[in-house]
Amino acid sequence: MCALKIRIKYSKLGNLKFIGHLDVMRYFQKEIRRAGLDVSYSKGYSPHQIISFAAPLAMGITSDGEYFDGEFESVSTSKAMVDALNAVSVDEMHVTECVLLPDDAKNSMSVVSASDYVITFEEKCSTEEKSKLLGSVMDFMVQKEIVILKKTKKSEREENIKPGIMKCELRGDSMYMLLSTGSEYNLKPELVMQALYSFSGIEHNQFHYHIHRLETYMDSPKGGIMPLYQAGTSF
Q1: Which three-class secondary structure state does DSSP give residue 160?
Q2: Quick one: which of 120, 179, 195, 221 has the fewest CB in 10 Å?
Q3: How far is residue 38's CA from residue 229's CA, in Å, rounded to a whole number?
Q4: For residue 88, what pLDDT is reported?
Q5: Is residue 182 left, alpha or beta, with left meaning phi > 0 and alpha meaning psi from -120 to 50?
Q6: 109: closest CA among 6, 182, 16?
Q7: CA separation (Å) from 98 to 67, 82, 129, 209, 233?
Q8: Residues in Cβ contact with 107 at an 8 Å cutoff, skipping those fewer than 6 apart
Q9: Which uninterrupted H or E stretch holds 124?
Q10: 3-state helix/strand/coil string of 32-93
């Protein structure tokens, strides 16, 4: 019998923003065992759970739209799986969706195309700084190019990040961004904020704002984008 492909959506909130991606992987491996789910294991001398994660979240960012795919030998119902995982989880890591994927579905890591974020400002961010940043957003976005100095371990180079910004707009006292994500082009919201600070003539301070991911998307067969969980069905 073929294993069943399941896509699971979860939130990562509060103090869990300080744990890295490898710790999140280990967390769910243990949670799946504690929940008693019939997960599939790889063959060989060192078997491991067959699970893979989409678009790992950077340290310090919270999210309502995280995903991983897993292969399971048997399942009960979507609700039962969600309840089983949440029953052995901490409140700040909460499973919200569980769907069955078609047999030919690609894993979430390979199909991710976009993510959206809301940026809110901390109390330590002065009223003047916040006002200047928010007031610069429209002019920032009408630029033909938004060039940043992108640093890696081996080098640094200039890069135009404008093509990766699908949307950037004000929403009350916060900012909303829809950015390219995935293997084709991956733009981090931190880089957009650095560019906005530079454009506004303000020294960048990553502790003056908070980034929260709302959702992770894939290309829709009907055009546009859709949340990753919509590629499957409840069972």
Answers
A1: strand
A2: 221
A3: 21
A4: 97
A5: left
A6: 182
A7: 10, 6, 41, 32, 8
A8: 52, 54, 69
A9: none
A10: HHHCCCCECECCCCCCCECEEEECCCCCCCEEEEEEEEEEECCCCCHHHHHHHHHHCCCCCE
| Burial status of residue 153 (CB atoms within 10 A of its CB: 0-12, 13-18, 19 or more) | exposed
Residue 11 sits at φ, ψ, to 5 deg, of -105, 150
Is the model's pTM score more than 0.85?
A: yes
Q: Which two tokens stand for residue 25?
A: 């992987």
Reply yes or no on whether the pLDDT at 53 is more than 70: yes
What is the Cα Rg of the chain in Å?
20
Asked whether the beta carbons of 231 and 105 are under 8 A apart, the reply is: yes
Phi-psi region of 96 (alpha: psi -120 to 50; beta: other; left: phi over 0): alpha
Q: Which helix (H) or strand (E) holds 116?
A: strand 112-121
Q: 114: how many CB neighbours lie within 10 A of its CB?
A: 23
Structure tokens at 158: 């200039």
pLDDT tens digit string along 126-157? 999 999 999 999 999 999 999 998 877 777 88
Q: What is the pLDDT of residue 27?
A: 97
Question: Which structure tokens are listed for 168?
Answer: 């950037």
Residue type, 221: P
Do the Cβ atoms of 58 and 187 come closer than 8 Å?
no
Reference 186, options 210, 206, 159; nearest CA is 159
pLDDT of residue 199 exceeding 80, the answer is yes
- Whole-angstrom distance, CA of residue 217 vs CA of residue 54: 10
Q: How many helices and strands (H and E) does the chain possess?
A: 5, 11
Is the separation of the CB atoms in 213 and 229 below 8 Å? no
